[in-house]
Design a protein that fits this description.
The complex is a heterodimer of chains A (325) and B (344). Chain A is built from 9 helices and 10 strands. Chain A has 325 residues and is an alpha+beta fold. Chain B has 344 residues and is an all-alpha fold. The chains are: A alpha+beta (325), B mainly alpha (344). Chains A and B meet through strand 2, helix 4, helix 5, strand 6 and helix 9 of A and helix 1, helix 3, helix 4, helix 6 and helix 7 of B.
């Protein structure tokens, strides 16, 4: 197996980084369908990791007053309020407003899996006599606890010039704060907008997947604090199986919009160590729909840099040939 | 408990935050700097309009300035070597001095931008081909002393053999110093930089050659700057072509190169570059003043290109649409291809 690949699946990510007899890869499966938005994960993370206070401000857009991940927010609970039913087809497969005849005239292909399963939510007794089911409303709240993805191919780690960012034996990605010199290169390298510099301190900070806790057999603080097990910690292989079963279960219940995000080792970052079950498109939660590790294209970049430098050298040298002036 | 009094002049003693408007005023820490907040509308294309990426924390003067100075130094070292070996001492000496000054300034800018400047030497703790900044640090560590030795031996006349070796070394490494910064910018998730990773090295070396030619036209006697004037014409053509090609390939991500600060700077760069190169070619031989003016135009034009690229990248990182739309298009394309294969 090549040990220096820039993209694609890598089932032994810790071994590729040079760890011998590495333990299995650990990660998070964040099942947003049971997130209640309590933010216990944010608080537990701040407490355990001693992350400084970074302003008590109201965003005015929702119950989310954290905004986004950054140097001082390693967990972030997103709140989205939508005029959409929870149970029903995936939002992008809604056929409302589609002119079927016009579509037929254009020759549209059939959806691969034959559409979404029909709603199968049992009527709940004692809920009033309107015959509506629990999920049958026009309003839904999406809540999702976002975190560092601990990518298989982590751009932050790749571009770090000091070796401060490194791959742990658990396959996670951690900053060594005693080495980071605050060059800030990892910040724009991350395709998810996770890692950031702390302005007063200068260094880059992000989720460590509680390297200190995991090292002594404890689960990360956020997973420990999560009251609904929306955040699940464990061996990545097992989490992937569990997640696949959960999606199937939700589809069976008529929640056609349930989908996994970051679980696929074939994706642009080789799969995430922390992946998610979402109920809408990733961009609705502030996640990129198709992230790619920037270093995938680095061999081509270096080739172009080489040709450009040679062109410059040759071009300028040619200006000295011939005429005397 | 309310402690305020209603008086003829209005309410007195009210708690200052009592009627604070949620999200209505002030800046918020996770907002792009300088942008006012109004309660953002929910939109299906983004999370309340917030950026997907964390925009770089780099200061424009430090990093775009570094790109410019690195290019100026690298280009000047090549012109210096050309002057050195074609018996144009009037060109070689100022070019060597410019290279030393510019590379010194570029290192200062780099260190100044660090969050922990005292740990600058950690840059040389490892060598990583996956990190253009690591490669660049080592390049600078080799190029800087060479450029310095070339300038000092030329000035003092000491150790001419060492001076010649240093001049040659600086000329070979100089173009790499000028070009690698393109990979530095492109090897990020910033859409307007990453999507230009094929053309950006050519934009940067052209811009570097323009800056170096401009500096030579200012500092060297007109009788010896023929190569610099010709180089400016060639590099101007190269930069225009590379930029046009880059913007065409990028699609909607090229927008920040045409609008806002990025757009303004790129337009200014084009005008200054063309004026400086054409003016230099036509008048630079006859008039010392015209050569100086055209040289200055080329220098400023090169700086505008670097700052334009920098600002375009920042804008593309701040607005989530530049991240989301191309990625969503990719997802759709893949889905369509998969559907086609299923049908076939």
């Amino acid at each position: 197996m090549p040990t220096n690949q820039f993209s694609g699946p890598d089932p032994h990510v810790a071994a590729s980084a040079g760890h011998r007899d590495a333990p299995p890869r650990y990660g998070f499966f964040t099942d947003t369908s049971v997130c209640i938005g309590c933010k216990a994960c944010e608080v537990a993370c701040k407490e355990w990791n001693a992350i400084p206070e970074d302003g008590l401000e109201l965003t005015g857009m929702s119950f989310d007053n954290t905004g986004r991940l950054g140097a001082d927010s390693w967990r972030h609970v997103a709140f989205v309020e939508q005029r959409k039913p929870l149970v029903g087809p995936p939002p992008d497969e809604s056929h409302r407003g589609v002119d079927a005849l016009a579509a037929a005239a254009q020759g549209v292909t059939v959806p691969e899996q034959g559409g979404w399963p029909a709603p199968l939510v049992p009527e709940q007794p004692g809920r009033g006599g309107d015959g509506g089911s629990a999920g049958d409303t026009d309003l839904r709240w999406l809540m999702a606890s976002d975190v560092c993805k601990h990518c298989t191919h982590a751009a932050c780690l790749d571009v770090c010039p000091t070796g401060s960012l490194f791959r742990t034996e658990f396959g996670t990605v951690v900053v060594q704060e005693d080495i980071c010199n605050g060059c800030g290169y990892c910040v724009p390298a991350c395709p998810y907008g996770v890692i950031d510099q702390r302005p007063d301190d200068g260094r880059a900070w992000k989720c460590t997947l509680c390297y200190d806790r995991v090292g002594v057999g404890m689960e990360p603080a956020c997973a420990k604090a999560c009251p609904t097990d929306s955040i699940q910690f464990g061996e990545l292989d097992e989490l992937r199986e569990r997640a696949a079963a959960r999606v199937e279960q939700l589809h069976g219940d008529g929640v056609g919009s349930a989908r996994l995000y970051g679980h696929d080792p074939e994706d642009g970052v080789g799969g995430d160590g922390a992946f998610f079950l979402l109920l809408d498109e990733p961009e609705v939660y502030g996640l990129p729909p198709d992230p790619v590790v920037t270093t995938r294209d680095l061999p081509r970049m270096w080739a172009h840099v080489g040709v450009a430098a040679a062109t410059m050298l040759g071009g300028l040298a040619a200006m000295f040939v011939g005429r005397r002036s | 408990m309310s402690t305020s009094d209603v008086t003829r002049d209005g309410i007195r003693g009210a708690h200052p935050g009592r009627e604070a408007r949620v999200g209505g005023t002030g800046e918020q820490r996770w907002r792009p700097r300088g942008q006012r907040t109004a309660a953002p509308e929910y939109s299906p294309d983004s999370y309340y309009g917030l950026p997907v990426l964390n925009p770089p924390r780099w200061a424009a003067t430090d990093i775009a300035g570094y790109f410019f100075l690195g290019g100026l130094a690298g280009g000047s070292s090549v012109l210096a070597a050309g002057g050195h070996w074609t018996n144009r001492p009037g060109l070689a000496r100022p070019a060597k001095l410019v290279a030393l000054g510019a590379v010194s300034g570029s290192v200062v800018a780099l260190v100044h931008d660090l969050g922990r400047p005292a740990r600058f030497l950690n840059m040389l703790r490892v060598f990583k081909i996956t990190s253009p900044m690591s490669v660049g640090s080592w390049l600078l560590a080799a190029y800087g002393p060479a450029a310095g030795a070339a300038a000092i031996t030329d000035l003092t006349g000491w150790f001419p053999r060492i001076g010649a070796t240093a001049t040659a070394t600086a000329a070979v490494l100089g173009p790499l110093v000028a070009a690698y910064t393109a990979a530095l910018a492109a090897d990020t998730a910033v859409p307007a930089w990453h999507e230009g990773h094929r053309e950006l090295p050519f934009v940067f070396v052209s811009s570097a050659a323009l800056a170096a030619s401009g500096a030579s036209m200012i500092a060297a006697p007109t009788a010896q700057t023929g190569p610099a004037r010709r180089a400016a014409v060639l590099a101007a053509a190269g930069e225009l072509a590379a930029t046009a090609r880059m913007e065409r390939r990028m699609g909607m991500v090229a927008e920040p190169y045409r609008t806002g600060w990025g757009g303004r700077l790129m337009k200014a760069a084009k005008a200054l570059t063309v004026a400086g190169a054409v003016g230099g070619a036509l008048l630079g031989r006859r008039s010392r003043v015209a050569a100086g003016v055209c040289g200055a135009a080329l220098l400023v034009g090169s700086a505008c290109t670097r700052f334009g690229v920098f600002h375009a990248g920042m804008e593309s990182a701040r607005d989530p649409k530049y991240t989301v739309e191309p990625q969503r298009a990719r997802v759709r394309e893949r889905a369509a291809r998969a559907a086609e294969e299923n049908v076939a």
